[in-house]
Model the fold of this input.
Amino acid sequence: MAFKELVFSGVQPTGNLHLGNYLGAIVKFVELQDSHDCIYCVVDMHAITQAHDPNQLIANIREVTAAFIACGIDPKKHIVFNQSQVAEHAELAWVFNCVARIGWLNRMTQFKEKAGKDRENASIGLYDYPVLMAADILVYRATHVPVGEDQKQHLELSRDIAQKFNNDFAESIAAHGFGEGFFPLPEPLIQGPATRVMSLRDGTKKMSKSDASDYSRINLSDDADAIAQKVRKAKTDPEPLPSELPGLDKRPEATNLVGIYAALSGATKDQVLAEFGGGQFSQFKASLVDLAVAKLGPIGAEMKKLSADHAYIDSVLRDGSARARAIAAPNMKAVKEIVGFLS
Ligand code: AMP
Ligand code: TRP
Done:
């Protein structure tokens, strides 16, 4: 069965939105608006899988929403909402809990990283996180999912769940007039020079919201001074920049900064090296500061302004949630019929 193309993605409201979130995900969210119908979700139910402060959570939900809009997502043409306002996500996640296998979840590397050594003490929600993520996507029968590299394994799990549901209930799906399969196998969109932005302090570690050092990341809320300081202090190596890509081998920090420059300027890494190769890092960093401040400065300012306007942000989320629910509800009703619930 051919599915109508639909884009879905989510960002957790866990604070410190950073350059990795922007280049790995949000920039693509913005681009896809021209070619697709898009649904962008603030995944607040994922944000409670680890300890959180309720007052901070509500502020973070508004901040991610404000960031989406400040970066150029149009909440009128597309859908922007927070997950917990659409109950069908949790409802479908339960059905998927009964489709997904324990063996599949045991392979999830993000759970292992987040749970750390004290796995017995992690929440069941953290373990089940990828199943809820599959429900997020599939409750809309979305076909394309723009994400950063770190979400690849979770997307594969979503495909496995969709496939197993289609197989397990094939007869019932056909009997209810849905043809070959009820769910599409959602495709990850992981592209561009910055699908994995690394820490500014250590080029082998992912830039992350939870890194203890604020110097490891550029936050979308950073002002020009903070951006300049962080880029200047970013770790580098003593060699000048190479003129061609192979010269970046085994130079994680240089590779990362070149990738960031490329992504922010809309160029390829080759083009960046053609321009800066042979020069000193200090010169390249000065240009990177100018570029980053020019691109991110206005976004940060707009984001701060919007997140303070609670009435506006909350109305965007309410409106988006109603429109999301209108798509999710009939899909969930069909799932109930397919699995044999009486309603
Ligand atoms: P999260 O903050 O975990 O909800 O991530 C939101 C989106 O940003 C997801 O699509 C992630 O894959 C993406 N992302 C997070 N960190 C990075 C990073 N360091 N580089 C590239 N993409 C990232
Ligand atoms: N797990 C994603 C992250 O940490 C966030 C997320 C939740 C998501 N549900 C999703 C991303 C659905 C894409 C589609 O980045």
In short: The chain has 14 helices and five strands. Residues 8-10, 12, 43, 46, 133, 136-137, 145, 147, 151, 154 surround tryptophan (ligand 2) (CB under 6 Å). The longest helix spans residues 310-339.
